Task: structure prediction
Amino acid sequence: MSTQASYAPNSALLFERAKQVMPSGYTRHMAVTNPHPVYAEKADGCWITDVEGNKRIDYVNNFSALIHGHNKKEITDIVTSQVSCLISAILPSEWEIKLAELITARIPSCEQVRFMNSGTEAVMIAVKAGRAYSGKSKIAKMEGGYHGQFDLTETSFQPNPGNWGSENAPNSVAYTQGTPKSVTDEVVILPLNNIEAARAILRANADDIGTVIIDPLRLQLGMVEPDLDYLEMLREETEALGMVLVFDEVFSLRSSYGGTQGLRGVTPDLTAMGKIIGGGMPIGGLGGKKEFMSVFALDDGDPKVKHSGTFTANPMSMATGYVGMSLMTPEAFAELDRLGEKLREGLRKIAGDLGVVGHVEGVGSLNALIMHEAPIKNYREFVGAVQAGFLDRIQVFHQLLLEQRLLTMRGGFILSTAMTDDDIDFTLEGVSKALTQMQAL
Ligand SMILES: Cc1ncc(COP(=O)(O)O)c(C=O)c1O
Result:
């Protein structure tokens, strides 16, 4: 099968320049595309235009952050008015209170919130809070779990069969070369969806683990969710063993009005947020019950965890986030759910009719066509699927969808409120053509 990108001379030229000034031409490894990236020119609504003038429906939405797509009037209005009013300052602004009020009103486990500039930072501060609250330094995370760029939580994001150790007691494997052993020694790895093994690991390390972190809806495995009874086990064990349970909802908050925790009915102690809460501007957030957020409080003089930052809670991100999130009413989520269901149904029908190997997963605005027969339940099954050609098939699909004017990533279709029924119909037609072409290769 060919994975050759279509002819894109302007992008190719830009990439030549990029390679002179950025290692291998990129500044974002998650966006690497062979043989070179397609460069963006502009975007409007759900359509993004590249430097060749090709217009495509954007189903990536900057890795899910742009829940309203591009150029939504209310968002551009607030950006324009705020930029001429106040970009950033040492003084706090009312916008941060407004955004905090909005989040605390819709996510019951978040009685209080703090803000950062990225999801990575939110996770980093969550770990500090977990340590300070529990008095124990180690963290536990899922094998294959993605939580951003922090070296502690990127541990065992992508281990391989040569270093991952036993299935029931996975090794803690550094993601980046040069990571000190002292870092990986602080991380205990849990096998996702293996209740008995994970429970045993948590109990055996109860004196050392202070924080357990999980993303309750996993992007990198194609939207595969942790089983509900696995989440319930984590809730039960962390409570019994004096550990702080952190849900990394940086990605999954998009799944419903109250995030994935609202859908699944399991309540964490702390919630890391990002992406959609910025309305398109850079942001991170950490919320939790007052009891857990008290580690930041100044009640007794010095807080247990000090947290600041030059651009923290900058009025641009706070104002844009507030406007963007205010538009995400229960009705707006319901409409995304409806469009998501229409897309999933259509994808299922096309895949079934064409006899495509794969299945459709998703919830609300987050959808994926997983080009692998069986549902993938954990990281090791994902690696098995990759070895069986899973990612190669997705790469070919991606290229063929570009020809159909659809921009996707890893088989994922992430919706925005800018999309309509017509866009979904257009998409299904394109998917059908792309899959038919794929079968002929
Ligand atoms: C679950 C999860 N956690 C954390 C992050 C990191 O967020 P950011 O890229 O804003 O640092 C991401 C980003 O994709 C994510 O999906």
User: Anything to note?
Assistant: Residues 63, 118-120, 123, 146-148, 215, 219, 248, 250-251, 274 surround pyridoxal-5'-phosphate (CB under 6 Å). The chain has two domains: 9-67+329-440, 73-327. Residues 73-327 form a domain with the Aspartate Aminotransferase; domain 2 fold (CATH 3.40.640.10). The CA atoms of residues 130 and 290 lie 13 Å apart.
